Amino acid sequence: MLHRNRSQCEARVVSLYSQQRESGFEMAGSRGNGEGSIYQRSSDGRWLGVLSLGYGPDGRLLRKTVSAKTRGEVAKKLKELQRHQDDGIPLPDATLTVSQLFNSWYEDVLRHQVAPSASSNYKRIYDH
User: What local confidence, expressed as pLDDT, does residue 29 receive?
Assistant: First the structure.
């Protein structure tokens, strides 16, 4: 449909907008704080999701990045990372060692769930 003047165009846009609102369709809003960022990389078309993890000891921003072929896959991966972060589970990291994982588990979980003697036995077994 070709509109001949500006007022006809504006009337058509308002009409379409009101039809969309009545049908329950709304545009996606921006993501809130702590929800991460999703964008498409122009060089290869892959979708990236970035979650801010806070700041490191040197004051630099720590971020975790995930990628996938579709926006939906990235959103799913990003939501899983957020859930892990909210639950206090260490995020998957290629540099996480068994020693770091044990120490984190020992300090954050085990020490508070078992008797002190059992806790020290676990630590002694791990150290040897």
Answer: 55
